[in-house]
Specification:
By secondary structure, this protein is an alpha+beta fold. The chain folds into two domains: about 5-215, no CATH class; about 220-260, no CATH class. It is built from nine helices and twelve strands. The protein has helices spanning about 40-55, 60-75, 80, 110-115, 125-130, 140-145, 155-170, 205-215, 245-260; strands at about 5, 10, 15-20, 25-30, 35, 90-95, 105, 155, 185-190, 195-200, 225, 230-235. The strands form five sheets. Strands 1-10-9 form a three-stranded mixed β-sheet. Strands 3-4-8 form a three-stranded antiparallel β-sheet. Helix 1 runs antiparallel to helix 2 (about 60-75) and helix 1 (about 40-55) packs across helix 8 (about 205-215). The longest helix has 17 residues, at about 40-55. The protein is globular. Mean pLDDT is about 85; it is low at about 130-135. This is CGNR zinc finger domain-containing protein.
Length: about 260
């Protein structure tokens, strides 16, 4: 048996911020490509934390900073992350505990309106229509979000709120970490090419959340703050105190100058 990780994610070539019905959204403008973020999960996680730090401490250029992250990694995938039941298998969906909106049971198409504000979409109908999916393992809802004609969007303030929420756990007492809302991960037994355990990340947010959870519970304390610039980084060397060689060199230069 093999454990297969389904972690590919879609990112568009370009995104922009649009005001739709008085709500600012991050909107995809051009079709993009699929990549595997799990290969750089710790870099992505520290980028998310440093963005959260910036948004918490600064008011200027916030939208530009968020767009830089989204252009690099894609949207967070908040829709599947907050769904506590499979989207499209029923006319209603369970919204699990989350930091964005109320939990409860809601109509699936009302739920979809938050994320498809530019489209009229029957999510229940679309998710259950059989068709050829471009990605072999991905669920129909992923195909509806990214690989068809619809424009999956996310509220800008929700995206900002997530980054600040994640960063808040790095500046609070360790005991607060138990309040961290765990990511939604799914798995199933797949019988193609023998029996395999198929684990699917439902969202980019889930990948970031799990990378963060692993980092803060690691006895080696590899999630650190750079001694020079103050950025958070993941130490590939247990002795590392700096996020880069440049920061280490600058720190040593300033330290040497201070002695003279």
């Amino acid at each position: 048996m093999e454990q297969l990780l389904v972690s590919h994610w879609h990112k568009n070539t370009r995104y922009e911020i649009q005001s739709i019905d008085s709500v600012e959204y991050i909107v995809p403008c051009e079709y993009g490509s699929v990549y595997d973020p799990i290969k750089s999960e710790n870099t992505m996680m520290t980028d998310a934390l440093n963005l959260g730090k910036y948004l918490t401490e600064n008011d200027l250029c916030q939208n530009e900073m968020v767009l830089d992250f989204v252009h690099k990694y894609g949207l967070l995938g908040i829709m599947p992350d907050i769904a506590g039941s499979d989207i499209g298998k029923s006319e209603r969906v369970i919204v699990r505990d989350n930091i964005f909106t109320d939990s409860g049971i809601v109509d699936v198409n009302e739920f979809a309106k938050t994320f498809f504000p530019l489209d009229i979409i029957d999510l229940f109908d679309k998710a259950n229509k059989k068709g050829k999916l471009r990605l072999y393992y991905r669920s129909p809802i992923y195909s509806t979000m990214f690989l068809r004609k619809y424009r999956y969007c996310e509220p800008l303030e929700w995206v900002k709120k997530y980054f600040k929420y994640l960063y808040s756990f790095t500046i609070s007492k360790e005991s607060k970490l138990t309040e961290f809302i765990p990511p939604r991960l799914t798995y199933k037994i797949d019988n193609r090419n023998g029996l395999n355990l198929l684990c699917e990340y439902d969202s980019l947010k889930a990948m970031i959340d799990l990378a963060f959870a692993k980092a803060v519970t690691d006895d080696k304390k590899l999630l650190r703050t750079c001694k020079h610039c103050g950025k958070l980084f993941y130490a590939t060397d247990i002795r590392s105190e700096f996020c880069s060689a440049r920061c280490r060199n600058q720190y040593n230069v300033y330290k040497s100058r201070a002695k003279h």
